[in-house]
Amino acid sequence: MNDVLDVALRLLVVFAVFLVLPLVVGQTEHKVMAHMQGRLGPMYAGGFHGWAQLVADGVKFAQKEDVVPANADRRIFQLAPAVALLPYLLVLIAIPIGPSESAVGQVIDAGLFFVLAVMGVGVLGSLMAGWASANKFSLLGGLRTAAQLLAYELPMLLAAASVAMAAGTVSLPGILEAFEWWWLPWQVVGALVFFTAGLAELQRPPFDMPVADSEIIFGAYTEYTGLRFALFLLAEYAGIVVLCALTTVLFLGGWHGPFGADGLGWVWTLLKTAVLAFVVIWLRVSYPRLREDQLQKLAWTVLIPLALAQIALTGIVKVAIQ
Amino acid sequence: MIGLTLAAAATQGAGVGAGASAAAGVGNGFLSPSGVEIAFLLVGLVTLGAAVVTVTTKQLVHAALWLVVALGGIAVEYLLLTAEFIAWVQVLIYLGSVVVLLLFGLMLTKAPIGRSPDADSGNRWVALAVAVAAAGALVWVVVDAFRTTWIDLDGPVQGSTKVSGEILFRHWVLPFEALSVLLLAALIGAVVLSRKNGDPDNTTREASPREKGKR
């Protein structure tokens, strides 16, 4: 009985994090983008600096009519938002935020594989949405999503493999236990490749060709309204949280910090994740969108060779220090 | 072409599903099945059903999505057999990449919403024969190989990453390397086929200044 309660409690906490952190990132994006562009952003909802803007947005989304286009494939159209969102919830279960056993939803032996595998499934949601909408802009968005995913999955996996080689394990807590500070310079190329490829997988600017508003309206999500549209947006922000947390765990040492390691490890994890989320927002404000051919070229001629070089470097150093 | 690939993949799915179910049926837990065994059988049935729908549905994209269910079901079966590593690799490679590639191909060529009555190549019975033969061979091999073996669920994990890695790189290195050479050959072949002969790509125009990526 105690075990059941324990598991239920953990799942509840993960679910709460899943609901809160993406909204925090979203609100931060509103404000950070606004200030970088010389405006104020939301100021009214909730009183203090518009903190409740996203809550108000949520209420608005819930009130909207849920429209399914007449020619759409009804069931797949309605299923797609869930397929896009749920994988990120599952991934959060495996990410450790602190050194103790109680600071991770569930320790998974092949955690690295679990995380990357399940994250890849989320893209199926965009493909389903793009196809089922019976809209050519949606279909174009779906196509671009698929092309982008195929190009960026490989460098992401290779970069992650480099860390797994360095640590000698694919368990996420195991990788963090093996972490030393000099891994930062050692794995820095892998970290950059991983983060860039992750951004592309989330379709965040500058890799937002699949939802390029000036060309194809809103890509795969063009026909969506109300709560289903909100679920897609939530998936994007949950994806940012997952990507930043994962980069923190794999490349930035997670709960390790220069001081206060005892009991305060989770603060370090959250802090690093927050800084990375800020970088994600920053990139959105400061970079123009890449064209499709530039996108593919970047993946195949820059990121993959860099990731392979990182793996070679990891192997050489690993053999040398043994 | 795509239909054929789908059929082949689904055949594999059906074969593995059927083989796995058969393996569960044999064994001492048959009369007093444990929860895991019941779950295994149920997931096996779902997998088999999804695989059958994959090859019989008239809607191409639905077939690809049912293939997702079938391949996911196999991943769950691996999990129940404690082969955790293999299960996640299955999700990563098949669900995350192969199905996405398939959907990409479908969308790029022809993916109407609704039925496509012309999607039958007329080889239905040949395909069925091949599928039954493949499934029969797989069931026979699996049942014959694991007739009296069952997994001790309370003991040490038998399919962890460490164990899988050790077995793969100690006992099965040669097949592993042979397979990687085969894949490399396929990769080089694909590169060669996709290159245009002699005509260097001269579309290196400058990127036009675009509006900031604001949605």
Reported for the largest beta sheet of chain B, the result is:
none
CA-based gyration radius of chain B: 22 Å
Mean pLDDT metric of chain A: 84
Give me the secondary-structure category of chain B. mainly alpha
Enzyme class (chain B): translocase
EC number (chain B): 7.1.1.-
Protein name (chain B): NADH-quinone oxidoreductase subunit J
Subcellular location (chain B): Cell membrane
Describe the structure.
Chain A: It catalyses: a quinone + NADH + 5 H(+)(in) = a quinol + NAD(+) + 4 H(+)(out). The complex is a heterodimer of chains A (322) and B (215). Chain A has 322 residues and is an all-alpha fold. Helices cover 70% and strands 0% of the residues of chain A. Chain A is globular and about 65 Å long. The mean pLDDT of chain A is 84. Chain B is an all-alpha fold. Chain B folds into two domains: 2-153, Up-down Bundle (Four Helix Bundle (Hemerythrin (Met), subunit A)), CATH 1.20.120; 160-195. Chain B has helices spanning 2-25, 35-56, 60-80, 84-109, 124-145, 161-170, 173-194. In chain B, α1 runs parallel beside α3 (60-80). The longest helix of chain B has 26 residues, at 84-109.
Secondary structure blueprint with pairings:
The complex is a heterodimer of chains A (322) and B (215).
Chain A: H1 2-36, H2 53-63, H3 74-94, H4 111-132, H5 136-167, H6 172-177, H7 183-186, H8 188-202, H9 213-216, H10 226-251, H11 265-286, H12 292-320
Chain B: H1 2-25, H2 35-56, H3 60-80, H4 84-109, H5 124-145, H6 161-170, H7 173-194
Helix pairs in contact in B: 1-2, 1-3, 1-5, 2-3, 3-4
Essential attributes:
heterodimer, A: 322 residues, globular, B: 215 residues, 7 helices, 0% strand
In short:
The complex is a heterodimer of chains A (322) and B (215). With 322 residues, chain A is mainly alpha-helical.
